[in-house]
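PROTEIN DATA CARD
Card holder: Zinc finger and SCAN domain-containing protein 25-like
Chain length: 117
Origin: Notothenia coriiceps
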Amino acid sequence: MVVPSEESPIETYHRLKGLYRRWIQPEQHTKEEIAEAIILEQMLRILPPEVRAWVKEHEPTEGLAAAKLALQYINARRGGPPARSTTFTHQPAHQPRPAKRENRPEFSGYPSTAPNQ
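Structure generated from the sequence above:
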């Protein structure tokens, strides 16, 4: 993200806040969904470019799914064992999956307006 030289810090803050609201849509998503989107975004940012491209092609919706896909890619290139499962919905028994709220769009995890894309 490039900050225009004529933009004040206050203007930059408001622009960033607007981008955040367009990307995250906090009125439509739970805290857990928002956290997962941020974790997924950061996970994708730290992956090497070739791994990132392959993982994004598979459209993970959660950070853990992206991590498992990255491991699958790395193992395939090294000749290691393939990933044991291609479904990434497992949650430990002690952590129930949060209920979805009614009349809310599915959170894709792929922001179209996130800074630094």
